Amino acid sequence: MATKSQASIFMVFTATLLVAINGDPQVPCYFIFGDSLMDNGNNNHLHTNAKVNYEPYAQLLGFESFIQPFATARSDDIVKGVNYASGGAGIREESGQHLGERISFDNQIKNHRITILRLIFLVGRGSLVATKKYLHKCMYTVGMGNNDYINNYFAPEYYNTSSLYSPEEFALLLVEQYSQQLQALYAYGARKFGIFAAGYSGCTPGMMAIYGMNSCVDSVNSAIILFNTHLNTILNELNTKYPDAKFIYIDAPLQYPTDLNVTDKPCCEVESIDGKGNCSPDHIPCSNRQNYVFWDSFHPTERVSVIDGTQAYTTLSPLYASEAISSLVDNEEGHFSNA
């Protein structure tokens, strides 16, 4: 989403989707696309305010180590997956550009193509067909759209999209572009998709501060609900168009525990007095962080991240459950399965 934070709150879903369990990983490989909620190092050496240089949290899919960022992943890393996410990135190329350098979703897809060219020799034995068969078994999660609203549509001081498009028009425009991008990943071999809904940014402390409110900004949330509704529709259409693939829509939990009751302010002291931005350095955060929904002005706390990640893991069960069954069949028949 926004800018650099002074605590390890990033990697909300991607790491929580990885638990230490006995046995092999539930999928052979895992590819991650998204923004600062997913980024675990790709922005570290870019000229940007959106740094995400902290360790991710927990694990759930059985991998022995975290999926490495594209910026530093080595050959033995990419066989089990790559994280392409970039803080500040969006579906649209210009989203987040006022923050500095970032890797848009289009460019994350280009980086994935580079990975595939390397995988041809690592797992495909020189064969693109065999490599795509390997990729068919991998899980792909994508979390995009947050910055297209926070750092584009609802940032009129930097972007003119809100004057060019109504919320409905912008949502349709975004989802159409998103659909083309997901289909590009399909063409490269992806078959198991988990697509995160955009967050209700109107309920972030940062957006409340921008609008001078102490409760959720309905106009912001209404626009994002339009996007999520159209996104769900387009994923259903893609499931029909590509019966050999599965596109799963991942929404946020309907409610959190009642003791998660601090929703209108961040746990840490933020960089600007009006509540925008992220944690200021060298300041002690709140002592009861377990009660806070947001760590800084836009990003959730670890507790919320674990709750959201656990629900995402459950929602995605058709992807890794079907992979476990197909792996048994492949091994029984002597087919190419894991590299």
UniProtKB/TrEMBL annotation:
Keywords: Hydrolase, Lipid degradation, Lipid metabolism, Secreted, Signal. GO terms for cellular component: extracellular region. It is found in: Secreted. InterPro entries: GDSL, GDSL_esterase/lipase, SGNH_hydro_sf. The keyword Signal applies. Residues 1-23 form the signal peptide. The keyword Isomerase does not apply. GO terms for biological process: lipid catabolic process. GO terms for molecular function: hydrolase activity, acting on ester bonds. Pfam families: Lipase_GDSL. It comes from the Eukaryota. Belongs to the 'GDSL' lipolytic enzyme family. This is Lipase, GDSL. It comes from Cynara cardunculus var. scolymus (Globe artichoke).
